[in-house]
Design a protein that fits this description.
Elements: E1 4-11, H1 15-26, E2 32-34, E3 54-55, E4 65-66, H2 67-80, E5 84-86, E6 90-94, E7 100-104, E8 114-121, E9 125-127, E10 143-144, H3 147-150, E11 158-162, H4 166-175, E12 181-185, H5 195-202, E13 207-210, E14 213-219, E15 226-231, E16 237-240, E17 244-247, E18 251-253, E19 284-286, H6 298-318
Parallel strand pairs: 1-2, 1-8, 2-5, 8-19, 10-17, 11-12, 11-17, 12-13
Antiparallel strand pairs: 3-4, 6-7, 7-8, 9-18, 14-15, 15-16
Helix pairs in contact: 1-2, 1-6, 4-5
Bound molecules: NADP nicotinamide-adenine-dinucleotide phosphate.
Length: 335
């Protein structure tokens, strides 16, 4: 079967990808969204919000909304305007010639699965986890990877933050606004975080440190009830009674299939020509967490998805593709 040709193929279906899908679908470009497929390594159609419970900081929902429901709404909105979803994941891309080639399944197959005039990369990033039993089940029930998102739910709780980098210190400091106490559990006896962040944490009376320690067990079945900590030097184990655990040991952008094709930082995050979503390959755009190692919010991802859609629409129009009522052209805006 020969590969089908699409004006827009969107890789990933978090807030960035689905916002790009809503915009390009409204421009009658019938985007194809490869929404990903669930995997044991935490891949998730719908992105990281599928792993959260209540989302209170996404504008437009004064009472909050559950993360999975929000993503179902994004998807339904994109489909309403003609976006096509495939529950598959790209296994290989070739951006060296046009149309761009995308493989699903066997990456060694001679023929690609899809051809695309433009590609919007929104494959996201995943928060690194400790890999302990029950960690996934308790995510959203005491375990979190985002203090900005979930800190509010831990008012007057005793909580732990795992890690010793800038993220851990930033999360811990932020969490002291709500928590009764915050214990930073770090595997060494000195922090990796910048001096200024360290000084801020040391001066904060709500922050305690558990040095040379790592978490070996999560207690609780339906919600987190405590941690078992092991001293890395003595092997001694102790209980830490907390009802929240924020894991802040870094993120990994999902960019392995773009290595050697798209410009990226040493950390793997894609480089875009800010403030546009253009990558180093003309016609390939990137949005969301895959190119954002700083803000990492659903709303900033959605905003950048809009940018990528408009960049793709402009690119297509400049290359002779008819684009209907693009949202970026005010005189033709509908409604
Ligand atoms: P990071 O700098 O890589 O730090 C990760 C921390 O987690 C390290 O302390 C590491 O311990 C620990 N860790 C890693 N794997 C672990 C495991 N399996 N178990 C227990 N602990 C583990 O990551 P990050 O803090 O997310 O920061 C990423 C980048 O963003 C950095 O460049 C950072 O400066 C930047 N950032 C900046 C700001 C800011 O300036 N406001 C805020 C956030 C992030 P070791 O120290 O022993 O390796």
């Amino acid at each position: 079967m020969s590969a089908s040709l699409h004006d827009v193929v969107i890789l990933g279906s978090g807030p960035a990808g689905l916002t790009a899908a809503i915009y390009t679908a409204r421009a009658s470009l019938e985007p194809l969204v490869l929404e990903g497929e669930p995997s044991s390594t935490g891949d998730q159609p719908g992105g990281q919000l599928m792993l959260t419970t209540e989302v209170e900081n996404f504008p437009g929902f004064p009472e909050g909304i559950m993360g999975p429901e929000l993503m179902m709404n994004f998807k339904a909105q994109a489909e309403r305007f003609g976006a096509k979803m495939e529950t598959v994941k790209a296994s290989r891309v070739d951006f060296s010639e046009r149309p761009f080639k995308i493989w699903v399944g066997d990456p060694e197959a001679a023929e690609p699965t899809y051809l695309a005039r433009t590609v919007i990369v929104s494959t996201g990033a995943e928060a690194l986890m400790l890999g302990l039993p029950k960690e996934t089940e308790l995510t959203g029930h005491g375990v979190s990877t985002c203090a900005t998102c979930d800190g509010f739910f831990f008012r007057d709780h005793d909580i732990a933050v795992i890690g010793g980098g800038d993220s851990a210190i930033e999360e811990a400091t932020f969490l002291t606004k709500f928590a009764k106490s915050v214990t930073i559990v770090h595997r060494r006896d000195e922090l990796r975080a910048s001096k200024i962040m360290q000084d801020r944490a040391f001066a904060n009376p709500k922050i305690n440190f558990q040095w040379d320690s790592h978490v070996v067990e999560l207690k609780g079945d339906t919600k987190l009830e405590g941690l078992v900590i092991e001293n890395t030097k003595t092997g001694e184990r102790s209980d830490l009674t907390v009802t929240g655990m924020f894991v802040a040991i870094g993120h990994r952008p999902n960019t392995s299939i773009f290595k050697g094709q798209l410009a990226m930082k040493d950390s793997g995050y894609l480089i875009t020509e800010h403030p546009s979503s253009r990558t180093n390959v003309e016609g390939v755009f990137a949005c969301g967490d895959v190119q954002d190692d700083y803000y990492r919010q659903a709303i900033t991802a959605a905003g950048s998805g809009c940018t990528a859609a408009i960049d793709a629409e402009r690119y297509l129009e400049e290359h002779g593709v008819e684009v209907d009522h693009p949202d970026w052209r005010p005189e033709e805006r509908q409604g």
